[in-house]
Amino acid sequence: MWHLFQFPLCPFSRKVRLLLGEKGVGYELVRESPWQRRDEFIDMNPTGQTPVMTQADRDLILIDSSAICEYFEETTDKAQLIGGTAANRAEVRRLVSWFDHQFYGDVVAPLMHERMKKRLVDRAAPDARILREAMKNAHSHFDYLDYLLDHRTWLAGATLSLADLAAAAHISVADYLGGIDFKGHELVKRWYAGLKSRPSFRPLLSERMEVIKPPEHYDKVDF
Amino acid sequence: MWHLFQFPLCPFSRKVRLLLGEKGVGYELVRESPWQRRDEFIDMNPTGQTPVMTQADRDLILIDSSAICEYFEETTDKAQLIGGTAANRAEVRRLVSWFDHQFYGDVVAPLMHERMKKRLVDRAAPDARILREAMKNAHSHFDYLDYLLDHRTWLAGATLSLADLAAAAHISVADYLGGIDFKGHELVKRWYAGLKSRPSFRPLLSERMEVIKPPEHYDKVDF
């Protein structure tokens, strides 16, 4: 049995969970709050970041969400998520990287800092200017997604891929933290509604992070 | 023929160049300064970041250094650089990600900002405090590399892998910018000297970035 070290609002762990869900790989969740820098966790992963996956006997420790996703893509047959030609796979990886770096840095990280870390750790109020900037950035990113979805059924092409899961993972965290407004982005909204209704996504949407409440529409497929 | 859009001190482009060199893939360099945000480049890659690779007819555009490396790993037979079992490959990818994110963020990015961007774009003096912090961070990272190299011939195991190339790419940029002191890190020094003497590395070491001079020892295999 696999163990996945994560916390409910970690977008990188959500990406891994969506992939494992699509592939039907079983795992147990282990709650890890990276900001506590627990010694035993740092010993496993010197970066101190989630997600980390281990086998129950700790014979194999997988670190880094990209390495974990590639590992399960290579070792499972069900639901190819980095598939197609080499050029298709490059497009999937480009978009995963886009969400893991650009969207995360522009939108998710500032929201997590202002609305989660400040609340849980620093006991400080969020900075309204930074929140506004993050929400503005989300709109620019959604313009690009609208453009992609105007040409394609899924973000990277004709089939569901890790790009969609990475995008949904990051968007869901930003949405939980009140940073997403779908107005004016009908294509994104329709695509995201489709993802939300997948069995791989349902368990994530029902989880809550202590003291932080998501907006009313957060877990609704029809929003 | 492939074109590689890059600038001499881009660590992510250096990683790709080392991989292409090891694999014997031919390409032409195209100089791109991302901070100029050239329209034609942004049209190709909306993130505006190097490296980007294109075929001469622009039929295929590869974006993001990880996607590019995986592409050539999948489409060439020579010099496997993400090889071995699925667990070995996960270890290679973990370490590549370590250098592309942790080492880059802690060491390379601050050095590039203080010693390159401020010089070329902002015409401002570097902040000595930030430079000292980056150099201190490099020492902590080298402690971890010493630990790995005490157990392994190469960073990810018994054979040269993309992890070594990613590490060398980032270290070489930090070294060019005067941020690396190998004292007390004999294992790292010996390993890096071995990489510097490889034919894939020599062309990079002879290049210069306008107005910014590297330290005396920078391109010497015996340093």
UniProtKB/TrEMBL annotation, chains A, B:
CDD domains in the record: GST_C_family (cd00299), GST_N_family (cd00570)
So where does this one cross the membrane? none
Q: Which SUPFAM superfamilies match?
A: GST C-terminal domain-like, Thioredoxin-like
**A single Pfam family, by name?**
GST_C_2
The question of whether Transferase is a record keyword is answered with: yes
The record lists the organism as Sphingomonas cavernae
Query: Per its record, how is this protein called by name?
Result: Glutathione S-transferase family protein
Q: Where is the GST C-terminal domain?
A: 85-215
Source organism, top-level taxon: Bacteria
Single Gene Ontology MF annotation: transferase activity
Q: Which UniProt keywords apply?
A: Transferase
Q: Does the keyword Transferase apply?
A: yes
Gene3D superfamilies annotated for this entry? 1.20.1050.10, Glutaredoxin
Residue ranges annotated for the GST N-terminal domain, each copy included: 1-80
Q: Which InterPro entries match?
A: Glutathione-S-Trfase_C-like (IPR010987), Glutathione-S-Trfase_C_sf (IPR036282), Glutathione_S-Trfase (IPR040079), Glutathione_S-Trfase_N (IPR004045), Thioredoxin-like_sf (IPR036249)
